[in-house]
Amino acid sequence: MDIQDQQERRRRFNDQMHSLRDYTMGVLYVGAGLFLFFYRHWGVKVDLISRPVEIGLGVIVFIYGSWRILRGIQKKYE
Asked: pTM for the full model?
């Protein structure tokens, strides 16, 4: 096995790990965004910030999580 093969295997492994991290973090962010939308419907009582701020933050977090998932699917890491 030569050095180029080792470098290629290492690059593929790093790309897979990066992709897995993007999937995992994307799912967590999407879940957090959905939680900010729906937690009041589930009977959770938290009044730290106003409802419009919660919705705005939920939208931003949901979009960011979706982008992370999409980036994990595309696997464009250079």
From this structure: 0.80
Q: In terms of residues, how long is the chain? A: 78
Task: Confirm whether 12 is domain-assigned.
Answer: no
DSSP label of 1 = -
Domain, as residue range, for 51: 28-78
Question: The tokens 């290492």 sit on which residue?
Answer: 10
Number of domains in the chain: 1
- Does 21 fall in a domain? no
Categorize the per-residue pLDDT at 77 as very low, low, confident or very high, splitting at 50, 70 and 90: low
Which pLDDT does position 1 carry in this prediction? 64
At residue 78, does pLDDT exceed 70?
Answer: no
d(CA 4, CA 13): 14
Average pLDDT over residues 4-25: 90
Cβ burial of 64 (10 Å; 0-12, 13-18, 19+) is: middle
